[in-house]
Structures are given as structure tokens and as C-alpha cells.
TrEMBL record:
This is VanZ like family protein. Keywords: Membrane, Transmembrane, Transmembrane helix. InterPro entries: Teicoplanin_resist-assoc (IPR053150), VanZ-like (IPR006976). The lineage of its organism: Bacteria, Bacillati, Bacillota, Bacilli, Bacillales. The keyword rRNA processing does not apply. It comes from Filibacter tadaridae. Residues 48-177 form the VanZ-like domain. The chain crosses the membrane at residues 6-29, 41-66, 102-123, 130-148, 160-177. Pfam families: VanZ (PF04892).
Amino acid sequence: MTAILGYIGAMIPYMLIALPAILIFRLFYNKFRKRTNINRYHEIGVVIFLLFMTALFSQTILTFLYTGPAINHSFLNVNIVPFQVFKDNYFAITELNLWQPFIINFIGNICIFMPIGFMVPILWKKFDRFWKVSLVGFCISLFIETTQLTQYRSSDIDDLWLNTLGCMIGYQVYIIVKNRISAVDEIFKLR
């Protein structure tokens, strides 16, 4: 739990720094698009989404500001063996009695992408399809993992499918919410 709180604490300064820039960007974006009838809920949702993406990128690809564990730059930090995460977590739990790798690497990689799977379809009608949300999640994860190849970070093929699975679960949560509260689409999408 301490590690999760540490990640959240490390994200907050980035979000606070990004907030004014995001608000200014959205103001100019809407003026450029000549939008006069602005859906406030959509705008609030987009700002929250962009803040979330800032937080995600702050912990995954901004290595010059990275405060996590030190990793040597080598191909030993690259996992190209699918489902290695199961073996590694099983060993950590059974042999070392460590649950943190399971919570951070397995559960964390799923949970961190669930907001993307939920927010993308709720904010943008053209992404209100399971396969589109899954593709968005996969592409964002692929971007992160590819960027990490060039930095002093580890890169893992299992992160791709875990992150994409997180988006899929987030999309299913969106479907449940949409079915129970039918007005949710009307509230947050552009009119």
C-alpha cells in the first residue's frame, strides 16, 4: 500500500503543474474550433482525462524526473517472453513471500489503464466501441513500452496485454454505468 501511495504522491505535482497548461490549451482549442455551445461536463471530463494521462506519463516515460528504483540501461531490462509475469509473481509470492510485485506489476498494470477504458468512450462518441477502446489502450501502452526501451527503465511485453486488459475492463465498467444511468452519455459527450 505504501508503494501505491508513493506513486500517487509522485503524480500530484505533475498534475498540478499541467493543470494550467491543460486549461489554457482547452480554451484555445475550443476557440480555434469555434465552439460557442460548450458542454461543461465534457470539458471537465477532458481536463480530468488529460490530468490522468499526465500522471500516467509522469510515472512511465518521464525518466529524467523519475524517482523510482534505479535500473541499469541494458537489454536485461526487456522482457519479450509473454506471460512471464505469472512465473515472476508466483516465485515472488511462494519463494520470497513478497506480494508487492503482484500488486504493482500485475494488478497495478491492469488498474492504471481502467480509467482510459472508461473515460475514452464516455467522452468521445466515435470511441464507443469495445475494439476501438482496446486499440487505444494497446497503442498507449505500446507507446509507453517503446519509449521505455530508449530510457533507463524496464520494458515488458506483459505490460502490453495487462494494460490492454485494463482498458477492456474499464470499457465494461462504462457499459454497466451506461446501462444503469442512461443519461451518462448525454451528459459527457459533445452535443
